[in-house]
Structure formats: structure tokens, C-alpha cells
Amino acid sequence: MNKNLFNYCILIILLCFANNSYSQNPLISHIFAADPSAHVWKSDTTTLWLYTSHDVPGTNHHATMFDYHVFSTKDLINWTDYGRVLSVDDVKWGVSYAWAPDAVYRNGKYYLVFCMFEKGTGNFRTGLAVSDVPQGPFKDIGFIKGIELGQDPCLYVDENNTPYIYWGAGGHCYAAQLKDDLKSIINKTKVELSNQLNEFFEGPWLHKYNNKYYLSYPGLPDNKWPEEMYYAISDKPLGPFKSMGKYISLFNGCSGTNHGSIVKYKNDWIAFYHSTWLSNGKSEVRNLMANYLFYKNDSIKPIIPDTLGLSKGNPTKSIIFLEAENAQASGGKLVGTKVESSFKGYSGKGYVSGFDYRPDYVEVLVQVAKDMEANLKIRLSANDDFYADILVGVTMLAGWEGLKINKTNGWQEIDFGKIKLKEGDTKIRFTSHNYNAKIDYFKIEPIIK
Asked: Does 2.115.10.20 match the CATH number of domain 3-315?
């Protein structure tokens, strides 16, 4: 068997395993996502968060990236997708190319740091959006001043509470200290790190281990695609840095790009990155990957991507969890309805009520990689038996008479059974025939075969 044929066979085997329900890489299988930024917030060290970009199914270009998603887990097996948390449509200065994001907790708020093409110039800007909760949705508050061509931002806060930002693409990497409000850099601190980083191309990420600062990034070996993951170390956050080599080399099913993060979670170090295992090698639609990371002195031991990932044999599961009160901010709608918070026991920040007329509704957006089945559950409250219309895409779950729903004893999660989701975007609309109905959240459980 020649070498090319052998490599092809290995790739097919890997992809078969990757789609097996007992694999853990790809990490999340119901959606195409990339550029994972991993964080463990001090307010809850039991939860790991991923802030990612989103690839549109069927696309052939990264210009079609329009929004961001957030995922969380408490055990590296069960994951929650909070849906769209920010899109180009929500950013008044942005027009397209919603590429790699990062996040930070600062002064009681959670910030999403992201990049988009700016209207009128076509240049990348580094944007800032804010939320009271780590899962968003996030509200745009403008772009960070002093950063030109601000692609692929990483925001790092040192132990002394000093914020730093790193950005760059096309072989140029920059870093600077940020002002306390994160809205602009301190100009005199700006440095270019490009010449210190072997084969640097884009996507810097900073973490600290044993009093050393590790700057990891996607690089182009000999200026040739695809990208591999490199790293460098320093005694100071702004360098100078010493190049240390690669920690993820080419692997079967890799994307043309790579982009990742490194984080400590429950005493383990983990490297997050992306591949094309779900799309069978199509580089414009990527999926999230993760493996444990190990050090030897100051060096990172090379990672070889595998299907086991972080699970040690346990399959991953994921749900899509959409708070009804966030519908409008997350790609859905409230029509004739309103957000309230007087009836206690709800999750999130409130619930949707005000179904005064049959056309009034709450609608949420669900985004998936492929046509699939899912289980739909809705947490609601109603004082009396009532009828409701539930529209999934263009399919009504019942006829003209609607679905009969029994009165509840306070809040109750109702299982509406299997629904069909279409590749890409599906809207789920709930209309109540009863004035006193209240909707807390929608839970969609993808059935991955």
C-alpha cells in the first residue's frame, strides 16, 4: 500500500470513529463551530465556558461567518449550547466576517471581545460587547480604540488585574496593555511581536504556567497552508518571547486553518482547537476539538488529535438551551408578548407572557449543522388547561385546534416529543390560546445518530 493510500484509509477510519456516538472528538456534533476560546471564571470554577465563532452549513467561504455561540460544561461530557449570543446584525459598526472571539470577566461584567469588518472601510476592528452573565447574549458597546486591523483578539488579565490584548493576522502579531475600561489601548505599551514568533500567521492566545507566559498561535510552516499550532514563552506578558516550536502538527482531518486556546480546568490543562472531522475535510465548516495538554519543564508535549479527546471513553452529549426572554437578542422575536419577572421560580432573568391574542408569540432561533431530529421541551406555567400552536420551521405540531396543554402546578417542563430541524437556521414559534400562559425556556436535545 502506498503512503497516500494509507493516509487516506487512516482518515476514513478516523472520520468513522469521529461520528460514532462513543467518541468525544469532535467535541460537539450538532453545530459547526470554530476558534474556541476557553475560560473558567472565578465565580464558578466548576464550569468551563467556550466562546466560539460559527460556520454556516453549505458555505464555501469564511465571509459567511455572521455570529457567535457560547457553550458550557461541568463534566466535559454534557455540553450546553446557548444559541446565538451576538451577530453582525447586532453590531452597528460591523458588516461581515465575524471571526475569532475571546471573553473576559471584568468589574462585575462579562465581555465578548470579537472582530468584524467595519462598515465603510472594510478593515477588521476589534469589538467589545457586554453581558451580566457569562452565557450572554451580549450587547455591542463599540470597538477598541488604538487597534488597527484588529483580527483574532485575545484578552488576558494578569494576577495584578492588568489587562492586555493580543491581535494579528497575515504574519503580524501585536500586543498592548489596555486601559481599565477595556475600551482603548495604552499607546506607549504597544509592541509588535512578529519577529519573535516562528512562522506566526494569526490567532494569538496567552496563558500562564509556572510563572511563564505562553503565547500560542496558528503558524504557517515555510509560509505554506494548512496551519499548525506553535507556541513561545516569556517572563513578561509583552515579551520578549522565545519560540519553542509546535504543539499540534498536521493531522488527518485538519482544517486549512487552526485556532485554539489553552486553559486549566479541575487540575487538568486542556488544549482546544478545531478540525473538519464533521464535514469530511471541508475547511469552511469546522468543528470543536479538545485534548489534554501536558508539560515537560517549560515545554508543551506534542498533541496528536484522537477520537477519545477528554472523555476517557464516555460519549459527549449536548443540548440547546434558549431562554425565552432572550429571544429578540438571540435571533428570534417577541410579537405582542412581553418579558416579565414577577412570577418567581423562573430561570435566567425572566419569562415571556402577554399572550393576549392568538397571533401573539415568542420565537427562538435554533442553529444546527445538518438535518436532524431533536426532542423539544418547553418550561412553562399556566393556571388553566389551554391550547397552543407550536411551529417548527414551517411544520405545525398540531392542526387548527392546536395542542392541548394541561394546567401546571407552578413551573413545569413539558416534553413535546421529536421535532425535525433543518440544516442551518430553524425558528420555533410558540403561540398560546390562553392569556395566563408564561414561557420560561426552550430546551432542544439533538439526536445524533
From this structure: yes
